[in-house]
Specification:
Blueprint: H1 2-7, H2 14-18, H3 23-39, E1 44-48, E2 51-56, E3 59-66, E4 70-74, H4 77-89, E5 93-94, E6 99-102, H5 109-122
Antiparallel strand pairs: 1-2, 2-3, 3-4, 4-6, 5-6
């Protein structure tokens, strides 16, 4: 696993992933993070606020977190609003700021790809970490 993290630039997430108690949850988190890194190689992986996230030109694009029940994806409220109808139609558990994928169930990568692509495009000229 360590070689895989180093080859896809995810060594920044090594301690976070190691801190996830359940091996199946660790594996699913690592898979999701590796998918983002492979699909959007221009994004920079980093840990901030004790969570794995990806940035583009020093602006936040997407963040992840692990809880007991789910893997959470936080794309910022603007992206949540843009994709809310699709999130609801897909019956994904969500809040105003994040989407929850239950452990052991597939992550909705097509939706995640559209959200990340939206954030990259929408924040192309953003000069702050968060949207204002």
């Amino acid at each position: 696993m360590k070689e895989r993290r180093e080859e896809n630039g995810l060594e920044a997430f090594e301690a976070y992933i190691a801190g996830i108690d359940r091996p199946d949850h660790r594996e699913q988190m690592e898979e999701a993070l590796a998918w983002v890194a492979a699909t959007f190689p221009q994004l920079q992986p980093k840990i901030a606020w004790n969570q794995p996230m990806f940035t583009d030109h020093e602006t936040f694009i997407i963040g992840f977190s692990a809880s007991k029940q789910h893997l959470a994806v936080a794309p910022e409220e603007a992206a949540m609003n843009r994709f809310l109808e699709e999130i609801v139609e897909s019956k994904h558990d969500h809040t105003k700021g994040l989407i929850r994928f239950k452990w052991g169930r597939p992550v909705d990568y097509p939706l995640l790809e559209r959200i990340i692509a939206f954030n990259i495009e929408d924040k192309a000229d953003c000069t702050t970490f968060w949207r204002k």
